Amino acid sequence: MHTVNDLLTIRNLTTSFRLKDTYHAAVDNVSLSLQKNEILAIVGESGCGKSTLATTIVGLHNAINTKVTGEILYNQQNLTQLSEEQFNELRGNDIGFIFQDPLSALNPLMRIQEQIAEGLIYHTTLTKQQREERVLELLEQVGIANPSRVARQFPHQLSGGMRQRVMIAIALSSKPAIIIADEPTTALDVTIQAQILDLLKALQDETQAGIILITHDLGVVAEMADRVAVMYAGQVIEEAPVQELFNNAKHPYTRSLLNSIPQTHQENERLEVIHGMVPSLMNLPREGCRFSARIPWIDASAHESTPQLHEIAPGHFVRCTCWKHFHFENEREGVSV
Amino acid sequence: MSFMQIKDLNVHYPIRGGFFNTIQDKVYAVDGVTLAFEKGKTYGLVGESGSGKSTTGKAIIGLEKVTSGHIIYEGQDVTNRRRKRSSTYSRDIQMIFQDAHSSMNPRKRVIDILAEPIRNFMKLSDQEERKRIKELLAIVGMSEDVLLKYPHEFSGGQKQRLGIARAVACHPKLIIADEPVSALDLSVQAQVLNFMKDIQQQYGLSYLFISHDLGVVKHMCDYIAIMYKGRFVETGTRQDIYSNPQHIYTNRLLSAIPHIEPETRVARKEARQQVEEKYQQNHHQYYDEHGKVYPLKSISETHKVAMSGIEREGL
């Protein structure tokens, strides 16, 4: 699972938020790794901790109300131990971040060129002239047709797709080794989404960056990812190469999710629904299988008392043993999985 | 037979400017839309953002002023009519909003939110009203102890279900659902869509389902209209649109949908890029000088598609 040539290694990472004077883990003991030139997708419903994981990697949480334990290893440094100054060296330079909503992530009072150049001022020694050239180059790279005009515009003058392209240009500005894309296409139309995803892929081929793609859209995952980690209630519950995950998903949660997609090439009358809902942070069950409450027809003895990730095929990890006994509610019991 | 027809609906917004703030130009948000609603069917309105699909929905329910065209409901022209709050049209056409949270008064409790349409349109005693509210909660599968809660105490899916409960409170004929599930997670989305289908079967409702998610639209809709810049590009049954798309814009839209088959993604990407290339090359054939599509022509009983420029000239 973790090899020496990992670009980024996350080990036993736990991020807890203080709520009413007790700490609640939003990301609970997560271990993941990212290789060079790889797209690792992190999937899950809202509230499962995927965005918290992303923001923890780049240290965007304030230290007063957040407790981070575990290791995030990048370039022989443990990111959880870095000071704010050291982090500033990394953020935007080694790690680029693409946010979900570009309109709120971009400064409404700054022109596009200033926003892109901002990172260059901190991280490079380019002259003003060189910076301007680099800005135009970046805008062209992300497929903006008229870079010199767009560079002088403000975010509100651009369409959603253009804004997201600008965000990508900012993330790419200093050729980062890692790009974290948090729901980069959720707010976009399908045609624009396809363009942005193709762009990300093309840029990756060029720069060989490792991308962590956070999304709730399994379609996007199938289009983009090399490896997928499915998160539920703060834990990684299944991790597998993309084809393996879509063809041979094991964990009940993954299977239920795949089952609830209204697919464009099947016309079943009813969609499968997962019972109950994602437990909130304050009343997460901390012991036993966290998904058990949502599959009550599965016998309690099927779950492990402290569910662990088991490698069931090369590179395919599943948490808990309940998948061996899982069947959908309307299926007859004892159907082999 | 359709109970409601929409004929050549136009919604234009003036762009004012210049010295005297005169009308310089217009935004053609909805530009000649014709539709007919039958009982118990679902009509999908698909398009990219800015294509005018939401404006169409709002114009039908009366939240936008119609510039020209007619909305005929059960034989009566209801376009831009001043209506009493208690008119049948207001009662029979209801709406589900995308953002359920902002569509509810944060200071009202669930009981008052659900009682509002009942108080407006039905003359019920307090007890009957209470009974109806409990029925509504049962329809959307929520327990009665939510009655005294406030909207912020609910999750997104629950709020959307309350929105649906409010919309069906007075036995409407048509519900305009403006992106009802696009803010929801997959499993919650499945729940809400199932509810919408159940309620439809039970009460013979019609839906105008506005969405940009072609997967959801395919699951829900009997008839689909693809919209672009205020006009219909292609209309037809679900099979017409998905199995036999004619217009290049429809093809482009369909090719952009992500599929959950990682094996074929390279092939699909190539196909998508070919469609995109063709779209760029042949753009002028399908769009007039304002970048709009040409009028529709029928190619089968149910299937209509916008003409290409050549066909238009031949007419």
Low-confidence stretches of chain A: none
Named CATH architecture of chain B: 3-Layer(aba) Sandwich
Which blocks of ≥5 consecutive residues of chain B have pLDDT under 50?
none
Quaternary state reads: heterodimer
Spatial strand order of the main sheet of chain A: 6-7-8-3-9-10-12-11
Give the strand line-up of the largest sheet of chain B.
Answer: 6-7-8-3-9-10-12-11
Tell me what the structure shows:
The complex is a heterodimer of chains A (337) and B (315). By secondary structure, chain A is of the alpha/beta class. Chain A has helices spanning 50-57, 84-90, 102-105, 112-123, 128-141, 147-151, 160-172, 190-207, 218-224, 242-247, 252-259, and strands at 8-19, 22-34, 39-43, 66-74, 77-78, 95-98, 178-182, 210-215, 227-232, 235-241, 309-313, 316-319. Chain A has an 8-stranded mixed β-sheet, with helices on both faces. Chain A has a domain at 250-325. Chain A contains 11 helices and 12 strands. Chain A is globular and about 70 Å long. Chain B is an alpha/beta fold. Chain B has a single domain (4-229), classed as 3-Layer(aba) Sandwich (Rossmann fold). In chain B, 38% of the residues lie in helices and 25% in strands. In chain B, strands 6-7-8-3-9-10-12-11 form an 8-stranded mixed β-sheet, with helices on both faces. In chain B, strands 2-1-4-5 form a 4-stranded antiparallel β-sheet. In chain B, a hairpin with a 5-residue loop joins strand 11 (296-298) and strand 12. In chain B, helix 3 (110-121) packs parallel to helix 5 and helix 5 runs parallel beside helix 6 (186-203). Chain B is globular. The two termini of chain B are 31 Å apart. The chains are: A alpha/beta (337), B alpha/beta (315). The interface between A and B is large, with 40 and 41 residues.
